[in-house]
Fold Malonyl CoA-acyl carrier protein transacylase.
Amino acid sequence: MGKIAFVFPGQGSQSVGMGQDLYASLPAAKDYFDRANAALGFSLSDLIFQGPEDQLKITYHTQPALLTTSIACLEAFKAAGITPDYVAGHSLGEYSALVAAGVLAFEDAVRTVRARGEFMEQAVPGGLGAMAAVLGAERGALAELCAAITSGGSVVELANVNCPGQIVVSGSKEGVAAVVERCKEAGAKRAIPLEVSGPFHSSLMKPASERLAEVLASIEMKDAAVPVVANVTARPVTQPSDIRGLLVEQVYSPVLWEDTITYLISQGVDTFIELGSGTVLAGLIKKVDKTVKTVSIGSLEALDKFTQEVHNHVNG
């Protein structure tokens, strides 16, 4: 029997109405939305369920919204009786993974990612930073191109190593524009500028990381009940002291998602269950290894379908 990893999505997976069917049907899931509202002092659930989309897309709204939806999905999924051998999350999703592993209390996580979103928004004045998805480039060649552009005075760095052929770069507006223009030098097919409010996971985010460090220092963390594979190292962590440091680094370091999935597969994981809005992670995981099983649980319908499949398998 292979091992199972629960994975949790990050920014970009949000959509107006996510989790609403779980909220309406399952008291245990509804409870998390209600607790998030109380923790933040405003109705996050109204914003999630009704929008408007431009408000939900603001980083300090998106982050607690996605975390709450993921944990509500996790709560609903608990009825299936499946426990993970590992957990991991993409960027913001790492906080959902830490709640799932029992490291962070839910309310602490919601308040922390709200603050994280605010710090990230404020780290670089609007319009000065940018990000772009580069398709088809080899990692080493793209890193070299970024280093050459940065040494010329325009910061640009690898931000998300998502899967073979998909790497996101981040940095100054000029640096990212130079990568978009010159990406073919790194063997890329093309580069697509992303609609984001800042240069996330680049060294320009260091001011945000320093502020986040203060918040994280004040929060209780417990040892992880299951190993959490960290974005920064693509290796498992369980101790609060290590986790705190890695969460601070994560703000300005690349998300090593491809390496995370490769590591998990090397440890015998053959089933990845994505808990939260959308199917972005399942798609990336399949590009790393198309032989593994991926399941996305973001709705009541998806949950019911999965539960039925498990029931048929057990009884069949």
